[in-house]
């Protein structure tokens, strides 16, 4: 009677190993070797099932299991997709992944390509429903343990920061680290003081940057593990800004936007810090005003009136990437430009004309007399020449005033502007000069 010979189907087994830290990898026999030896022994024990070891090594040393962006793992996944692997063998489940979401995606990929997953020390594989259930339960606990450990580390870190302790990293300019404490570096501390004092004086980060660089100062030089270094270069605008905003210089330690009294000594006094950040507040206010002006730049709106007695409104068009603004009559918008009393007027041209007239009025004899008359009531020693000099100075720096400041003077002086095809008529506020006088009292 003939006999039937069973054919043993070979199952190609790939071993994956991982170690989170690089510590100990230089040793002749390390954790990766131990994982591989255990996996090889397990594969050999399943030789009767047709298990054979593929020659490739899939070892990730110094990589976290929190994500799948690991070179050896990615190479393994490519081989799985290419049909070169039948079984993936690991020492423990968390060697493959500590993330339940990532692991679920890996299992789906294995299933798609008919690849089984086996853990040597936990005695299960994904070919059975019980093995799959046990695997998910185990991985859930593994992820929970990882998250709890991370929370403990974060809590300890935050507690240490609240106590004012330096928790590592590169020290900022002005400090060195000694026995995990920040110690003032006298030479660098002088540079920090110079930066703050210069900014208070110039009110400009760019000007401060120029002064510091002109004096030959450099950023902090940080030694690297490979023997090189970084830093030791000229200061840039963003570097100066970070220094001016760093509360570590007034003796505080920060953590996620919160600041706590530090163990280290401050370099900057609270008075100097307040002056510097008072300047920041002024700049922020100006930027806010300019932002509002950009959103509604046509500041003569409500003051301009056409021959029909109706106020002009604003319009804009964009051509070749540029925006052009106009003042137009309501009739033009309602009935078309052919029926309008005025054509669209360039907003820039009209505004420049009105601003120039306002500048001239600032030096008028009428305003000069009114300012001198009211100022002398407060201080008898103020002469007409002093007032004239102050007003002339304001007129001379008119072009340097911010747009909101010019607009403010226009609003104080002008009540109404009437336009027709041949002329511009400006009606001034009855009490406009008095209002400007009050605005200019600080200049006298």
Features:
3 domains; single chain; Rossmann fold; 6-stranded mixed beta sheet; 17% strand; DNA_bind_recomb_sf; SSR_resolvase; 444 residues; Hect, E3 ligase catalytic domain fold; Resolvase-like_N_sf; 3-stranded mixed beta sheet; elongated; alpha/beta
Walk me through the structure.
The chain is an alpha/beta fold. The chain has three domains: 11-148, 3-Layer(aba) Sandwich (Rossmann fold), CATH 3.40.50.1390; 175-292, Alpha-Beta Complex (Hect, E3 ligase catalytic domain fold); 304-443, no CATH class. The chain has helices at residues 31-45, 71-81, 93-96, 100-112, 129-162, 186-202, 205-214, 237-245, 270-295, 330-335, 347-362, 365-378, 384-396, 403-413, 432-440, and strands at 11-19, 51-53, 58-61, 87-90, 116-119, 124-125, 175-178, 181-184, 222-223, 229-230, 252-255, 258-261, 304-305, 313-319, 322-328, 345-346, 414-419, 424-428. It is elongated. 47% of the residues lie in helices and 17% in strands. Residues 172-286 form the Recombinase domain. This is Recombinase family protein.
Task: Outline the secondary-structure elements.
Elements: E1 11-19, H1 31-45, E2 51-53, E3 58-61, H2 71-81, E4 87-90, H3 93-96, H4 100-112, E5 116-119, E6 124-125, H5 129-162, E7 175-178, E8 181-184, H6 186-202, H7 205-214, E9 222-223, E10 229-230, H8 237-245, E11 252-255, E12 258-261, H9 270-295, E13 304-305, E14 313-319, E15 322-328, H10 330-335, E16 345-346, H11 347-362, H12 365-378, H13 384-396, H14 403-413, E17 414-419, E18 424-428, H15 432-440
Parallel strand pairs: 1-2, 1-3, 1-4, 4-5, 13-17
Antiparallel strand pairs: 5-6, 7-8, 9-10, 11-12, 14-15, 15-16, 17-18
């Amino acid at each position: 009677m003939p006999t039937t010979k069973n054919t043993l189907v070979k199952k190609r087994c790939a071993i994956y190993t991982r170690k989170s830290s690089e510590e100990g990898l230089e040793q002749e026999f390390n954790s990766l070797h131990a994982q591989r030896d255990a996996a090889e022994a397990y594969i050999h024990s399943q030789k009767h099932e047709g298990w054979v070891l593929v020659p490739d090594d899939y070892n990730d040393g110094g990589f976290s299991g929190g994500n799948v962006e690991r070179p050896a793992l990615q190479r393994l996944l490519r081989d799985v997709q290419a049909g070169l692997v039948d079984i993936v063998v690991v020492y423990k489940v968390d060697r493959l992944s500590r993330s339940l979401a990532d692991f679920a995606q890996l299992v789906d990929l294995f299933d798609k390509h008919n690849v089984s997953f086996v853990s040597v020390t936990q005695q299960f594989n994904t070919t059975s429903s019980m093995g799959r259930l046990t695997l998910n339960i185990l991985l859930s606990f593994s992820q929970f343990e990882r998250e709890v450990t991370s929370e403990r580390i974060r809590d300890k870190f935050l507690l240490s920061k609240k106590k004012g302790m330096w928790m590592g990293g590169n020290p900022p300019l002005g400090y060195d680290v000694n026995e995990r404490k920040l110690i003032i570096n006298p030479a660098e501390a002088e540079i920090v003081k110079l930066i703050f004092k210069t900014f208070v004086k110039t009110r400009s980060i760019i000007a401060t940057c120029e002064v510091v660089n002109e004096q030959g100062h450099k950023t902090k030089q940080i030694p690297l593990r490979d023997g090189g270094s970084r830093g030791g270069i000229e200061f840039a605008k963003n570097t100066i800004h970070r220094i001016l905003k760093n509360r570590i210089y007034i003796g505080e330690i920060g953590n996620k936007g919160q600041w706590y009294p530090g163990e280290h000594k401050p370099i900057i006094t609270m008075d100097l810090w307040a002056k510097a950040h008072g300047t920041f507040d002024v700049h922020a206010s100006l930027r806010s005003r300019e932002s509002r002006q950009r959103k509604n730049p046509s500041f003569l709106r409500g003051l301009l009136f056409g021959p029909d007695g109706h106020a002009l409104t604003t319009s804009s068009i964009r051509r070749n990437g540029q925006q052009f603004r106009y003042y137009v009559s309501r009739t033009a918008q309602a009935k078309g430009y052919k029926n309008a009393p005025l054509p669209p007027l360039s907003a820039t041209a009209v505004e420049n004309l009105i601003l120039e007239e306002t500048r001239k009025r600032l030096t008028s004899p009428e305003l000069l007399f009114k300012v001198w008359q009211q100022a002398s009531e407060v201080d008898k020693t103020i002469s007409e020449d002093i007032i004239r000099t102050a007003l002339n100075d304001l007129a001379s720096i008119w072009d340097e005033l911010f747009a909101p400041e010019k607009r403010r003077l226009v609003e104080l002086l002008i009540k109404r502007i009437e336009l027709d095809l041949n002329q511009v008529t400006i009606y001034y506020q009855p009490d406009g000069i008095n209002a400007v006088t009050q605005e200019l009292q600080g200049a006298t």
